[in-house]
Automatic annotation (TrEMBL):
It comes from Streptomyces eurocidicus (Streptoverticillium eurocidicus). This is Pyridoxamine 5'-phosphate oxidase. One of its GO terms (molecular function) is oxidoreductase activity, acting on the CH-CH group of donors. Pfam families: Pyridox_ox_2. Keywords: Oxidoreductase. InterPro entries: F420H2_bilvrd_red/Heme_oxyg, Pyridox_Oxase-rel, Split_barrel_FMN-bd. The keyword Oxidoreductase applies. Signal peptide: none annotated. GO terms for cellular component: cytosol. The keyword Oxidoreductase applies.
Length: 161
């Protein structure tokens, strides 16, 4: 069994600025797997997961059709950790609120980069929409304790013997 994170820890982890991987069912053909794509997202503990994308992108069309999606965020550093959430789309904002778009850019980029990004992509404001998802199902893993057991076993300070 994976070492799961307690609820407050997984919510704090998801709230940190990480690139998420969005997954949505892709019914366009019998041999297609779900669409899996990296995205910027926003989340506050207890709230909705927010993702922004172009109105006519394949992921937006699939999200509208499916009415739900999953998102996984991970820490690739040791010890490895991840949080995955899945749930229904609760709202679609069309067009995107300029303040939300700016907040998302500032979440992921330093101030100077965010300003340049927002100026260079100002036209996207007319093309972007926002999907909100209410997390229903959570999966998480935090291998810190697991890794500590290995470290202690290797140094003779504990672990199974």
């Amino acid at each position: 069994m994976l070492p799961a994170m307690p609820s407050p820890d997984r919510e704090r982890f998801l709230a940190e600025p990480r690139v998420g991987v969005l997954g949505v069912t892709d019914p366009r053909g019998g041999d297609r797997a779900p669409l899996i794509v990296p995205v910027w997202y926003d989340y506050e503990p207890g709230g909705d997961v927010i993702v922004q994308m172009g109105r006519e992108t394949i992921k937006a069309r699939l999200l509208r059709a499916a009415g739900r999606f999953s998102l996984c965020a991970q820490d690739e550093g040791r010890p490895y950790r991840y949080v995955s959430v899945e749930g229904p789309v609760t709202a679609i904002q069309d067009p995107v609120d300029p303040a939300l778009r700016e907040a998302m850019a500032r979440r992921y980029l330093d101030p100077e980069e965010a300003t340049g990004y927002l100026e260079a992509t100002a036209g996207q404001l007319q093309d972007d929409i926002v999907f909100r998802m209410r997390p229903q199902h959570w999966r998480s893993a935090d291998f810190a304790a697991f890794a500590a057991d290995f470290t202690e076993a290797g140094t003779g300070r504990g672990g199974a013997g």
